[in-house]
Design brief:
Blueprint: E1 6-8, H1 10-23, E2 29-35, E3 40-46, H2 62-74, E4 78-86, H3 95-99, E5 109-114, E6 122-129, E7 132-136, E8 138-140
Parallel strand pairs: 1-3, 1-8, 4-5
Antiparallel strand pairs: 2-3, 2-4, 5-6, 6-7
Amino acid sequence: MKPQLLHITTQAYDRLIASCLEALPREACGILTGEPNIGKIIDVTAIANVHPSPSAAFAFAPDDWVKAYYRMQKSRQSLLGFFHSHPTSPPHPSTADELGIHTDDLLLSHWIISLQQPLQPEIQAYCYLNGCFQPAQWAIAD
């Protein structure tokens, strides 16, 4: 099964890029939320990275993750994906990414933002299917 085309609003896209740039030189991380019946990402919530090596890996701060989850529920949104940045490498899943969060739920996407060239971030979205990350197409759609 091939992943569907993923959609993100301009506002969410801008927030995604800003969150990643603000975190430099650390990896940024967080969640992507929206309305499940539309399947469009409309909000981005950064979550503090508490990994012991934050420039090379990420781990959600538990308190921030809980607050983000409740905020998502309160605004009647659904979790549509996760994101993190790679400050100095391409937007390809690392070994740590492969061992991290995965689910075969096609509604949950994983976005990696490469900041090798901070003025021209490179984004690749993925869906986790059949035991590995599969590249997914995405588009800005307001």
